[in-house]
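worker-03 picked up job from queue 'complexes'. Input manifest follows; two sequence lines, order preserved.
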Amino acid sequence: MQKGTTLAISLVLAASALAESAYAASHFETGDEAPLAASVRLNFTILIPEILTLRIDPRDAATNALQSPWALRVPAMAVRADGLEPDPTTLPRAVASSNAGTLATGAAAAESVQLGESAQANPPEQVSLAQPDDRPLLRSIEPTVSLDTHSAAFLVALP
Amino acid sequence: MKKETLSRVVFCLAGLTMLPATAHAESRFVTGTSSPLTATANLDFTITIPKFVYLRVGTGTSMATSTTVDNLVYTVPAANVGDGTAISGTGGDLTGGQVTARVMGNNGTIAFSSSTLGAMSNGAGDTISWSQMNVGVTTNTSATALSHPSLVDGSTTSINLPTTSGTKVTNLDARWTFTYRNDNVVAAGTYGGVNANNGRVTYGVSMP
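worker-03 finished. Artifact:
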């Protein structure tokens, strides 16, 4: 019984060794077996970096620029180029996306920079950034920012 | 009586089989007055061709088994993650994510297959499908390029290769260039690897 068990184990080990040695970048096989078979292998590695993006929408798809009448000012400030009062229904949105984890919170600091008027600082507003979907590969947040003032700076960070 | 008859028959048959051998000897002496006077001698030839099959993908050795396994590496720039820009690789015996592929055999139609264990993984639950790996096929030394069996997640696909001479001989090669399609924003990480995270493709041939 022990001999039989030992023989079986030996056969399994020999078979696995043969299978492993049969896998290489090239394999030449000859003999009378039918079918006659050979196997090789090739490894692949894909490296994806962590990314975190933040943008102001709506943007022109072709030029990637903020659509009129909105203008983009540094850093990430959105104001109407014509200086008119913003239409709440067309306010730009801050869109953040990442591929490296959940964007749990963010902050939006707003201050008044009415064109043609002297700047008046408002207290920074903390905006809770919801996670609208639970897709495992792309974490995206699209908070709609209500701007009483005409400019805002957005900040998002990975945990 | 029957035994004697049988023995005679066997003896006669043996004698008959000896006749052709003596008629085709390796030397013959002829004399006489006929003109022309001719003599013939025979020489037999035998060539033994073994049945064989040969498969190479990457850094291989011609008509021999090699233990080297290539690793093709694709590094996606941060600014291009998921934007559809094809990413070229590094590695392979022809460099740049390009490998030599060759199949030879001499006993009939060869079935050529590729197998994966599943979509490539980063070890953290995220995956990249093999459908995102594009294969460009160009001729190498054979007039017809060796086709590449499609890569499918966790599956084996097989194609029958055309013979290149007669009905039994196949000798096809090609240059295969693999690029990462980069069609989707995917989670950060290292996908696949050297016999890790389903990053290995096994190619196989089978000949009757």
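worker-03 released lock.
Chain A is about 15% helix and 35% strand.
Residues 1-22, 71-78, 104-153 of chain A have pLDDT under 50 and may be disordered.
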